[in-house]
Design goal:
Keywords: Amino-acid biosynthesis, Aromatic amino acid biosynthesis, Lyase, NAD. The chain is α/β, with parallel strands linked by helices. The chain contains 12 helices and 11 strands. The radius of gyration is 20 Å and the shape is globular.
Length: about 350
């Protein structure tokens, strides 16, 4: 099924139950795929072109040094400008393959076939590509939209429960951005992730990206939960999965919204969030480990005349509002200290009830 996207949108979006070879590039192409998916891909009758790269990548390997051998390989083939790179894997691989495609010959076309719920709901759509630096996540990257996104639900069947839960938080994020509380509450209940939720999330993100492709305004809303989330993820030594960190960031930002004077979220909703997140409590780093990472967040800016570790540093934050669309505010990173403490308390309370 081809998803309806805005006229002129850079990426064709398809939602499928099973892989369809007719959706692969018509001209010359090569594949960069997660090695764990090789058998799934070939057993589905999908082609494995010459010079395919089957790779193993993790968040810890999401570095420039990891993609340099890919670029050298393409140059030896050689891969020409009219070729297309097909990326098969989760969010880490799609971020890296997209950046490699943007760099090679100053940009070759690419397709993304996301195989995790997190990638389907977020990383694969929008043209953001990137790798990490020691100072923080995704500090090196480029906007390079894929020509086509093909999301096949069959790829989700072998995912561990934790990885399905990991992707659920990007869906909840989309509901909170729009103030769609009934939808958010539905997704916080026990039960499998629904295909319709993914479709709704992709349709919303496509509209936002089309209106703001370079993240100059509205698209910044998609960072909801990511400010504190990225800090928690890095401070955990990446023991937290990205979506899990976003989920914790969503709870934290609901608490922050109340503290800066916005309408408070009902205790029942906060408890529902905390209940699903409670198993992650042991991985939540203490505040002193998070603050330096917030100060180095790519959305942070330094106020002239202030020391780098002083409150003069400001950070762009997205704040949800109960039953209303989220808003954007620029705040000192230190405002996150109290929500961080309250988040830990809520997780402890829910864990004690389990």
């Amino acid at each position: 099924m081809r998803l309806a996207t805005p006229t002129g949108f850079a990426t064709e979006v398809f939602l499928q139950e099973t892989p369809d070879p007719s959706l692969l590039p018509e001209g010359p192409w090569t594949l960069v795929g997660d090695v764990r998916l090789r058998e799934t891909w070939t057993s589905a009758g999908m082609p494995e072109p010459a010079h395919t790269l089957w790779v193993s990548v993790s968040e810890e390997e999401k570095k420039l040094r990891t993609i340099l051998p890919w670029l050298e390989h393409w140059a030896r083939v050689p891969l020409h400008r009219e070729a297309t790179v097909v990326a098969l894997g989760g969010g880490v691989l799609s971020d890296m393959a997209g950046l490699a495609s943007a760099l090679y010959l100053r940009g070759v076309a690419w397709q993304v076939w996301p195989t995790s719920l997190l990638a389907m709901a977020d990383a694969a759509l929008g043209g953001k590509t990137g790798v990490d630096l020691a100072a923080g996540k995704n500090l090196v990257g480029a906007f390079h939209a894929p020509r086509r996104l093909v999301a096949c639900t069959a790829f989700l069947e072998s995912l561990p429960t934790r990885h399905l839960e990991n992707g659920r938080w990007e869906l909840v994020k989309t509901a909170l951005i729009q103030g769609e509380m009934a939808w958010a509450a539905e997704m916080l209940q026990d039960g499998p992730v629904k295909f319709a939720w993914v479709e709704r999330t992709l349709a919303y993100k496509a509209g936002v990206v089309h209106r703001d492709p370079r993240e100059a305004g509205e698209r910044r809303l998609l960072n909801l939960g990511h400010t504190l989330g990225h800090a928690l993820e890095a401070a955990s030594g990446y023991g937290l999965l990205h979506g899990e960190a976003v989920g914790l960031g969503l709870l934290g930002t609901c608490l922050l919204a109340e503290e800066v004077g916005l309408k408070a979220f009902p205790p029942a909703f906060l408890e529902a969030l905390a209940r699903r997140l409670a198993p992650l409590a042991p991985l939540v780093a203490p505040w002193p480990a998070c603050l330096p990472l917030l100060l180095r967040d790519k959305k942070a800016k330094h106020v002239p005349g202030a020391a780098e570790d002083e409150p003069g540093t400001e950070i762009h934050c997205i704040l949800p509002r109960f039953g209303e669309p989220a808003i954007q505010r620029t705040l000192a990173p230190q405002v996150w200290e109290s929500p961080h403490a309250r988040l830990i308390d809520l997780l402890a309370q829910e864990a004690s009830r389990a």
